[in-house]
Amino acid sequence: MSAEAARVAGPDPELEEVAPDAVSSTVRDPDLRLLEAMLFAAGEPLDEAIIAARLPEGADVRALLTALSADYADRGFNLVRAAGKWMLRTAPDLGFLLARDKPEPRRLSRAALETLAIIAYHQPVTRAEIEEIRGVSTNKGTLDVLLAAGWVRLRGRRRSPGRPVTYGTTETFLVHYGLDAIQDLPGLDELRGTGLIDSRVAAGLTVPLPSDDPDLKDDEDPLEPEFELSFAPEPDGDDDQDG
């Protein structure tokens, strides 16, 4: 059909049906559109202070985040909060589909998982304290793997003989496991419900309330600058030889 014939025939009824949706997209809140673009382009989670600084003055950041989170609730990706920051993440029920195209990640050994759990719940904790809780010696390679993954960090030095290094978890750990805060780790009742702890364990068993407060404790000293700069952990082979 020529352009002249189209003008005579009038608008296409099918195009008229979709016109309202097309128009509605043009009146979407500009602050909401800017927030969407910001989160989409970000290479890392954004905290509310950074978001507020990039939005027009007076924008209600919390209301915008709430609206966007609800808008994406049933989409292929969701707006989630992790480590106190906001990010776009693939919807949980679709993750397995996308995982097919990804290389198989290296799985942590049981020793590394146990060590990571102890650090998460008991931080700040030293290597000797980890070994005491596990009941077996901890291979240096196990800690190196966790440090290299960015899930564990060196915090400081314990004020005790030998001044051992203390370990704690990182923001990367929270993001990877989808935790908004370290306090979101499961407690005793939740662990029992998942079967990770036998329901018949002693009644006096408790799970410590985890804390990743970045401030050093009274029994910790800061790391020496030269130690911090020179330390570059390299995984030394198999990390599941201990225990």
Protein architecture, described:
The chain has helices at residues 3-9, 13-26, 30-41, 48-54, 61-71, 95-99, 110-122, 127-134, 140-149, 171-176, 188-194, 225-230; strands spanning 77-82, 85-90, 125-126, 152-158, 165-169, 220-221. It folds into 2 domains: 12-97, Winged helix-like DNA-binding domain superfamily/Winged helix DNA-binding domain (Arc Repressor Mutant, subunit A, Orthogonal Bundle), CATH 1.10.10.10; 110-230, Winged helix-like DNA-binding domain superfamily/Winged helix DNA-binding domain (Arc Repressor Mutant, subunit A, Orthogonal Bundle). The chain is built from 12 helices and 6 strands. The chain is globular and about 65 Å long.
Which helices and strands, and how do they pair?
Blueprint: H1 3-9, H2 13-26, H3 30-41, H4 48-54, H5 61-71, E1 77-82, E2 85-90, H6 95-99, H7 110-122, E3 125-126, H8 127-134, H9 140-149, E4 152-158, E5 165-169, H10 171-176, H11 188-194, E6 220-221, H12 225-230
Antiparallel strand pairs: 1-2, 3-5, 4-5, 4-6
Helix pairs in contact: 3-5, 7-9
Strand order of the largest sheet: 3-5-4-6
Span between termini: 78 Å
Determine the CATH topology of the largest domain: Arc Repressor Mutant, subunit A
The CATH H-level superfamily of the largest domain is Winged helix-like DNA-binding domain superfamily/Winged helix DNA-binding domain
Helix content estimate: 40-55%
In short:
By secondary structure, the protein is of the alpha+beta class. It is built from twelve helices and six strands.
